[in-house]
Amino acid sequence: MVGHLDHPVLVLNRFWQPVQTCTVRRALKLLFLGHAQVVQTEGEDRFRTHDLGSWVEHSSRDIVEEMIHTVRLALQVPKIIVLAIYEKLPRMEVRFTRRNVFLRDKHTCQYCAKIFAEAELNLDHVMPRDKGGRTTWENIVTSCIRCNTRKANKLPHEANMHPLRKPAAPRWRPMFGLRENSHSDESWTHFIDPDPSSVRLSA
Prior knowledge:
With 203 residues, the chain is α+β, with helices and mostly antiparallel strands. It is 23% helix and 18% strand. A 5-stranded mixed beta sheet has the order 2-1-7-3-4. It has a two-stranded antiparallel sheet with strand order 5-6. Strand 1 and strand 2 form a beta hairpin. It is elongated.
């Protein structure tokens, strides 16, 4: 059960736009408080929304492999929830943080191409700060401590150390920042990567 509670859930605002992800634990709390409804992702009633009562009823009718059992209830693990009152539009940029740089670079040193644990990584200014380099997405890369020490405050050509990829701001996605080894559910595709042929343009 603990594993199911940590699964990612796609969160939609009340206009059905993806805004973030949360854990099943958090999604169920919002459902119990009446702050969100579960979006059904399968069957004839796909995209129907459920409050707590109807989700309990739906779960009792359609037993699946991923279920959460309490003393009194058995609930399907929700995959998508829609918030009742949250109207904010999705944030369209990824916040610049140390952890998000590591996530962008997949915890890979951009100089030696090896993967490291977060504690063994540093941020490196491609153009050193004392030479006018700024702390931005376009000038910061992930580096291991050894490569960071070796490069020091040299320019890439001076140290003969060039990043594997040109650093840039990552594209915003609702699942950006998901825990390592977490995967988006196939049911999210309709909201995250909709098929252009299925999208209607209004006049």
